[in-house]
Design goal:
The protein is mainly α and 277 residues long. It is built from 13 helices and no strands.
């Protein structure tokens, strides 16, 4: 009995240390964003700015087209999330309900594809998009994000579909509903939490993605926010620290909001109230 409070205290201490480790970069980023140039060059930095200022934010918006880049990122992220969910939902349903060689092969591809590094697939993707004339375009970038998000989306939604009782679909079939009607009217509402989490994950991944956007987008008017943030670093590798921190802190806010929504969705029951006891 004496070991339980000690073990619980150790768990809370480990959790607090982990949360501090995760929160430190963002808190320091926000602190730097509000510091004037004189404090940024101080040999004794402080957590809280002694003379907070918004000059870094004004300079960031004056030097780079942050709003236009944010709109590009938003269009790419929303487009990738919507398309990934629309494609993954019926595919995951078939994979979960039909155990065939094809579905097993697709399941194997989902697992193996997660091991592919970005560098390995960028050249084939570039050649495919070049033949489709989608280089330096947001639709081409959305296509890449969808392909990259599909394995995770399928892996997550297959588990949610398998959690739905087959008896509900059999009851719908007895009432005369076809496969499509059953998916739309019976299964899809029960998959709403899983679909929301999958879409939000695809959104956050596309919003924060940098490598594909850097390689596939050439013109300034098509660049996304992560690519524009690199413009605050000079040719010699010297960063304009204040404006960079200000722009990066603003770019991080949508991801934090979306992750807060995801956490609430995950804790919700997928089948709450679906089956009467």
């Amino acid at each position: 009995m004496r070991a339980r409070p000690a073990a619980r205290a150790g768990q809370y201490a480990a959790l607090l240390a982990y949360l501090s480790f995760l929160a430190f970069p963002f808190l320091w980023l926000v602190s730097v964003a509000f510091k004037p140039a004189r404090e940024l060059g101080s040999l004794h930095p402080t957590w809280i700015p002694e003379h907070p200022t918004l000059a870094n934010f004004r300079q960031a918006f004056d030097e780079q087209p942050l709003l236009h880049a944010a709109v590009n990122s938003l269009l790419a992220a929303v487009g990738a999330a919507v398309v990934a969910v629309v494609v993954a939902t019926p595919t995951a349903y078939v994979m979960a309900r039909r155990r065939t060689r094809l579905t097993r092969a697709v399941s194997g591809w989902v697992v193996v594809s997660q091991a592919f590094p970005f560098v390995l697939v960028i050249i084939p993707l570039f050649l495919v998009l070049k033949n489709l004339r989608l280089i330096d375009s947001l639709p081409g970038l959305v296509l890449v994000y969808v392909v990259w998000a599909l394995p995770f989306a399928l892996w997550m939604l297959v588990g949610h579909v398998r959690a739905v009782p087959v008896e509900l679909e059999e009851a719908a079939a007895i009432d005369g509903a076809g496969r499509l009607r059953t998916l739309v009217s019976v299964t899809a509402p029960l998959l709403a939490p899983g679909i929301a989490v999958t879409g939000l994950f695809a959104f956050v991944t596309a919003w924060n993605e940098f490598f594909f956007a850097l390689v596939l987008l050439k013109s300034a008017r098509q660049q996304t926010l992560p690519v524009v943030l690199t413009h605050f670093i000079g040719a010699e590798g010297v960063a304009d620290l204040g404006p960079l921190a200000a722009a990066a802190s603003l770019a991080t806010l949508p991801s934090l909001v979306v992750f807060a929504i995801v956490q609430r969705r995950i804790t919700g029951g997928v089948l709450a109230g679906a089956v009467k006891s």
